[in-house]
Amino acid sequence: HSEEEKRNSEKVVEEDVVERFRNANELRKLIGEFFDFKSGDELDVVRPKKISKQFFVDPNQEQLDYFRAAEAIANSPNAGTLRYINEIMNIAISPYLSQFYKGTMPDAVKIVENSPKIKLFMEIIKQLKIDNPEGSRLFLAPRGIELHRPMREYLIKKVGHKPEEVAILSGAVKLNDTQIQDIMADFNEGKIKVLI
Length: 196
Hints:
This protein is mainly α. It has 7 helices and 5 strands; from the N terminus they run E-E-H-H-H-H-H-E-H-E-H-E.
């Protein structure tokens, strides 16, 4: 849409402003009109060999119990299906994210040891630390940010990373712009080995 904006020159300038796109396909078509995209394969870019691995993690008994309890949510007339999906996604990550967990939050070791997916992640990070000690790892975990601090603590206490090698860049920790830029720079330079 068109908006009038007042510029530093004190002149009113009318220009097009894109506020947002609701349809990713429309955005791709628009960008495609102005840019000639080529894939890495088309440009003969040499890339490392990609190795895909699938991991299947069995839930523990506490998670299975919570999954059964969550079935009642699915039958609720108040957006039951969506609430149910959200709940089972939380349970799948850790039983401590479930609304059915009523205890206090345990220590970092117990959280990791009793959360099979998080435990597997820690084991993979530990092995990668052995296989490639200079490498850095990025762990994307938008769900369960309340577990980011315990995960960091576990990486330091049990996996053997130094405190300065593990950083959190999420809503779990309040950071200003300078701190965010410093974390990004340290990760890119290899000082930070695990970024959550």
